[in-house]
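Data deposition worksheet. Section B asks for the primary sequence of the deposited chain exactly as it was used as input, without tags or linkers unless they were present during the calculation. Section C holds the resulting structure in token form. Section D is free text for depositor observations; keep each observation to a single sentence. Incomplete worksheets are returned to the depositor.
Section A, Depositor: J.P.
Section B:
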Amino acid sequence: PAQNLYTPVLVIPYESGAADRPRLFVKVAAARTDITANLATQERRRGLFGATVYDAKVDMQGAFVVPSEARLREHVAEKSGRFFWEESFVAFGSTTRLTGLRLEDKMTINGAETPLTPCREAMRNEHACQHASTVVAKAPLVPPTTAERKIDFKASVSLRGTSTFTVLNGAKELNVTMISPWQSPSFGGDALPLNSTVSANGFEARWEAIEFGAPRILSNFTIYDAAMWKNASVG
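Section C:
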């Protein structure tokens, strides 16, 4: 499929304490996300028909600024519940399918290497993993008191797709570089590249996007929420 990659978010589970209320997921957007995608193209043919597919090596790195628990409670309706900080995780994925992801693809969080686990396997909750193909990396935290805390992350993942490669941005600050031997790109999304070069050897393009204000915080019953990634998309 076409790959619509959404940027990583930090997720802290929350339970209100009411028996009839499912677990909430409080999501914190990254303060900064840097992405470099190398897209190697191939021509595939069957009879008279042809298609161009790509193998993408995607390197991501950035940081989250974790607000205090008191500030996070402002984003939940029932204030007396409990945050499960020890079950926190970082999630990212694609709105289509994460085709091409490999077992050796991992994420490093604050220097600790963590395997990527499919959402349904990690959460054992079909409803929580709806609307996107998502992987999670465990990031157990100690709750911040009053001071904000910075958490660094980086990952290198493999994806395969066709037609388009798009980054859906939820971060406050986004920097994206795409490199490919493809000689006739059509740049899409909500923002054009800051600069680009196209030659007989392929193309290289770079985007920068900034959303003013603090990183977005949202809570609901699913991990993927289109409102989290409503910043400018690039592709």
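Section D:
Helices lie at 69-73, 119-123.
The two ends are 15 Å apart (CA to CA).
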